[in-house]
Design goal:
Chain lengths: 474, 214
């Protein structure tokens, strides 16, 4: 399914082999699947064009439709288009100043959007942070009397109505619908028509003597139509390939993250995720220390303190009692050691220094569900990527053990130049979905922060395959 | 003494109960969160409640807020807040709730069983028990740092011990001098800091804390 063929590559070589090429079947599947998607998308988008509020309300839906298209293109055609940033609120700033027009000009020159007010002196500035606005004003010698951020509602609608990503996605579906119809028509005429003419002598024998307004007199003439069928079958994939190429070109141009500004936005988002994630991890480690080893050690100090008091106090030493206290303390120390070891391994598993393959071997043997391990890592990815791959695999195996009900699982780690792919499959119940705030969503966010991606294939009833793809270097 | 323990880590809860029972105290309730603590205090009216700062659900400062509420609603109940970290801010909040019967100790202090039970006894009697770390935090954060700088090193030691809530004889034992010498240091401190002289241990601590806190 994931054959990463290049789009310029022809469906087959030699040319007459096209009908039997894997690529042709993939393109046919793509044409069949994307027509309903295009119809649904247009049916969703067009009524929502009625006014600005509906533009804003439909922006997230349009983004998801775009994501679905990118997913299908990647899955069926191997056409990998990086996702553009999601629609988001954009806070605009209302600046009361006498030099509204000049500030508007300065803001536009600095890459923002600005609109001077008509009724009173002032300007509304979008897409620039307040500190930058103040800086621009100061540099131009403009006095700002008052600066106020727009309300949450206005920021929400403002960001979404003007989001270029959403508008490009709408344009894509507008073009995609006719293209999908053409694609499917080509497929129907060439494949079905081709088969029909190729087998025409059989139909003729059954009494079908008319085609395309001609009356076919003899079986010999009927046989002469076979090459026509053959020709249709051979040209069909080539025509469909052309249509698919146009589609891919549109997807790259309209559904990808094209402009540097959007790429910056996407990077900003992933940076925010990475920073939040690091902070959350540190908080988690602190919690684990506080509730685990630290508490254990405090309890230990109590036991030993009491034991010492018993031993040094006046009067008879209750040996049995002291022995029990020391024994408890001893058991507590062992627990604290285990706690600390688990925690340390959770921060950085030492075996990872030996390479990802070794680390995954240890991980696989520790799994509650039997894991078959396949690794092919001729060259080591960077440290950060190895660590991320390791923890992704650990999380996925934990999910298998906890939720899937699987009896066995496989863990694959393959590194080709530029790409490290981790895949965990299991024979469990399936139905794994990323839910906001859940483990899979968190994993996807973390992976996205290094320009990687997560693919979940988990139909109800199983089997489940989760693929994590990471660049070789973060 | 009748004691309520509020601590979410089961190992520590059990350890505390063991130590205190061993010393002849009665544990009337041992709970794991702030709401249960308030209920237990209202129902049992203990002499002292030992309260962990971080407890469920948010694991931030539930215990401290419950402690402050208990001091407001049940002034007769002594409170020992204990925690794995000392936050000067928490100490200030706790001391702002007014007169004695309050303490704030690091959990490590439990290791010295005699000291710990002594602190609880002091709190039950309406005294104070502050961790040396709390005191040094308050001293550092004090706006009177310049006035404190005029004290001799020995006087600063005495002030810190006084702020922890210790009596003259306990201070004398600690720094190996006579009680007479301690009294002399204290009167010097009060003069230098312009505090009204006071005989009672308790009022003396309050004066010091009020001084540090303002």
């Amino acid at each position: 399914m994931n054959d990463n063929q290049n789009m310029t590559e022809p469906p087959a070589s030699p040319a007459w082999g096209a009908p039997f090429a894997k690529r042709s079947w993939a393109e046919l599947r793509y044409a069949l699947v994307t027509l309903p998607l295009a119809i649904a998308a247009v049916a969703f988008i067009v009524p929502m064009l009625y006014n600005g509020l509906l533009w804003a309300a439909s922006a997230d839906g349009v983004w998801k439709l775009g994501a679905a298209s990118r997913f299908l293109a990647r899955r069926l055609l191997g056409e990998d288009v990086p996702a553009p940033p999601r629609p988001r609120s954009v806070v605009s700033y209302k600046v009361r100043t006498k030099d509204g027009a000049r500030l508007a000009k300065a803001a536009e020159e600095a890459g923002g959007k600005a609109r001077a007010w008509e009724s009173k002196p002032g300007v509304t500035v979008r897409r620039l942070p307040p500190a930058r606005i103040a800086e621009l004003a100061a540099a131009a010698g403009i006095t700002i009397d008052e600066m106020q951020p727009s309300s949450a509602f206005l920021s929400w609608t403002g960001g979404r109505t003007t989001d270029p990503v959403t508008w490009r996605a709408r344009a894509y579906f507008g073009l995609k619908l006719p293209l999908a119809v053409v694609g499917l028509a080509v497929a129907a005429v060439c494949w079905l028509g081709g088969l029909y003419y190729l087998t025409f002598p059989a139909w003729w024998s059954l009494g079908l003597h008319n085609t395309l307004g001609f009356h076919i007199m003899t079986l010999g003439v009927a046989f002469s139509l076979c090459p026509v069928g053959m020709a249709l079958l051979v040209t069909g994939p080539w025509l469909l390939h052309g249509v698919t190429n146009v589609d891919c070109w549109l997807i790259r141009g309209l559904l990808g993250a094209s402009s540097p500004a959007e790429r910056i936005r996407a990077l900003e988002e992933s940076r925010a995720i990475a920073v939040d994630d690091a902070a959350a991890r540190l908080r988690g480690i602190e919690r684990d220390l506080h509730d685990g080893a630290q508490a254990q050690l405090v309890a230990l100090s109590m036991k030993l303190g009491l034991a010492r008091d018993k031993l040094t106090g006046d009067g008879q030493v209750d040996v049995a009692r002291v022995a029990r206290l020391v024994e408890d303390a001893h058991a507590g120390i062992l627990e604290a050691i285990v706690d600390l070891r688990t925690l340390a391994r959770g921060i950085h598993p030492p075996v990872l220094d030996q390479g990802l393959a070794d680390a995954l071997t240890t991980l696989a043997t520790r799994s509650a569900v039997p894991v078959e391990l396949v690794t092919d890592i001729p060259e080591r990815p960077s440290d950060a990527i190895e660590t991320m791959a390791y923890f992704s695999a650990a999380e996925l195996l934990t999910n298998v053990a906890k939720h899937s009900g699987a009896r066995r699982a496989t863990l694959e780690a393959v590194h080709v130049p530029g790409l490290l792919r981790i895949r965990v499959t299991d024979d469990g119940l399936g139905g794994a979905r990323p839910v906001p705030g859940g483990g899979l969503c968190g994993l996807a966010d973390r992976v996205r922060a290094v320009d990687g991606r997560v693919d979940i294939d988990s139909p109800r009833g199983g089997p489940t395959a989760v693929t994590v793809e990471l660049p070789s270097r973060a | 003494m009748r004691i309520v323990i509020a601590e979410d880590a089961a190992v520590i809860r059990a350890g505390l109960a063991e130590i205190l029972t061993d010393r002849g105290h009665e544990i009337v309730a041992a709970v794991g969160d702030a709401e249960a603590l308030k209920d237990a205090v209202a129902a049992d009216q203990p002499d002292v409640a030992i309260v962990d700062v971080r407890m469920p659900p948010s694991h931030t400062d539930e215990g401290l807020r419950a402690a402050i509420a208990i001091r407001r609603d049940h002034p007769g109940v002594g409170i020992l807040v204990f925690s794995q970290y000392i936050e000067t801010r928490y100490a200030a909040d706790l001391l702002a709730t007014g007169s004695g019967g309050v303490g704030y100790l690091l959990k490590d202090r439990v290791a010295d069983v005699a000291e710990f039970t002594d602190a609880i006894t002091r709190i039950a009697a309406g005294g104070t028990a502050l961790d040396p770390e709390v005191v040094s935090g308050l001293l550092n954060a004090s706006r009177h740092a310049s006035a404190l700088g005029t004290l001799t090193a020995r006087e600063q030691d005495v002030l810190a011990l006084m702020a922890e809530g210790r009596s003259n004889s306990a201070i004398a034992d600690r720094i190996f001098v006579s009680e007479r010498a301690v009294e002399k240091h204290i009167s010097n401190i009060f003069t230098r800091l312009n505090l009204p002289p006071s005989d009672s241990d308790h009022r003396r601590v309050l004066a010091v804390l009020a001084y540090l806190g303002t």
